[in-house]
Amino acid sequence: MKDIPVYEQPAHGEMYLPESNNVRLLGFNFHRVIFPVSLVIVTVLVALALSSPAAFSQNLESVKGWILQNLDWFIMIMGNLAVLFCAGVAISPLGRIRLGGKDARPEFSTLSWFSMMFAAGMGVGLLYWGVAEPVAQYTEWWKTPLNVVKHTPEAAHAAMGATVFHWGFHPWAIYLVTALVVGFFAYNKGLPFSLSSGLQPLIGKAHKGLAGQLVDVFTVVLTVFGLATSLGLGAMQATAGITHVLGLPNSFGYQLLFILVVTGVAAFSLWRGLDTGIKLLGNLNMLLALALFVLVVVGIGVLDFGAGVLSSSIDYARYFLPLSNWIDRPDQDWLQGWTVFYWAWWCTWGPLVGVFVARISRGRTLRQMVAMVMLAPTVAAILWFTAFGGGAIAQVVAGTSTLAQGLTDVNMALFQFLEVLPMPLITSGLVVVLLVIFMVTSVNSGALVVDNLAAGGDPNTPRGQQVLWLVMIALVTIILFVIGGDTALKGIQAGAVVMGLPFMALMLLMMIGFLKALYQEARC
Prior knowledge:
Layout: E1 22-25, E2 28-31, H1 34-51, H2 53-70, H3 72-91, H4 110-129, H5 132-139, H6 153-167, H7 169-187, H8 200-203, H9 210-246, H10 252-272, H11 274-300, H12 302-324, H13 332-348, H14 350-359, H15 366-398, H16 413-418, H17 424-454, H18 463-523
Antiparallel strand pairs: 1-2
Helix pairs in contact: 1-2, 1-9, 1-18, 2-18, 3-7, 3-13, 3-15, 4-11, 4-14, 4-15, 4-17, 5-6, 5-15, 6-12, 6-15, 7-13, 7-14, 7-15, 7-18, 9-10, 9-17, 9-18, 10-11, 10-17, 10-18, 11-15, 11-17, 12-15, 13-18, 14-17, 17-18
């Protein structure tokens, strides 16, 4: 059998250069179609959200509900297919392929690489749902997985298994598909850093034409609104925690201050560049998260934590196949409200995290990418949710915290859990700092990716232009908050989830194109 070749990086002179479709004006560099069309669509959608927030949100919620109920089978299949695709790449000879060619070497240390990737892809979510989701699954906040009886030992196992399932292989596989495809075509084929490049084996030069431009416009809009929603939700949780710790009334002013602080720090980081600003923040994230993690583990008991890790790992393995199945499920409401929603929501971050991971993965083999982007975060999720979620369920069972009365406010769940443990002021303060830095890293990555896409896939745009996109994302969030309030923000979130469906179709095409390209190369 003929070996799969280890593809060479194109010669330096053959690497991607901005197309003639790009406009250079006042030091900026942007695509003459992708940039203005994306800007117009974002502006129109924001205007619609603000003109009638309640109606806008209600209409998008209705569309989202229809998709989750009627196309849940497709969303579940694509989530499972992403896991199988990435696993297949890793165990096959394709795993030897190195981004940039066989002589390419990584630009970042393994720790920095993982830190940047993890912070961009999931950091804020682990803080937001680390306590809230396991408690929600255990107490039947919104149904229970597989209809287990709430507040029972089985409910505790199901809660941990389902939570790790939602944050384990599947979301990272969705991210990884984009990273593998975009990274391969950019570093090994000299194509732009854009999702449209993944269509080249299927549509040829048309990937640079209208079809490819529509794909890139779609991913720009999807990323902007996914980020704006997350920035707004992050502001709500951070200010809820700050005001709770300080005994102050929560208000929009604090939320606005959070958004401005995140934007300011992110702008400074972007201006410093990928190698210094973003890498430094990624490493700082990991150090502070590790400090918080250790304090919580000590607080709940090291022996209890060790036993919990083993139990959570078994729960994840035990529930993996039943929760991956979508046929004749006894818990259709839970399936659609949790898992199907999650898979669609991860897709709103697919372009952002995928392209960003591709950018920082030059010199890595595809097998290394699967190991670090899909396996390592799953291990981290098991450890994190065991400490925070498992510890919170133990508090509910013992009746020692406010959580025992039920999950009344998702924004407050983590802080209610910490106030029972030793040094609550220190741990709560760490959470607030981590919320800021995790959000800065995510917004940084998003601004970088949006700017690349709006420049036709050019990875070398001016830093001031990257900061401009960052400011635009912050403005979208602030405008929605100021005029539309929480209703408009949730409407935009519903819209982003709706856009997750076509992204899954695009993801399927990218997987087919990727395999076709490799097959054609192998025949040469």
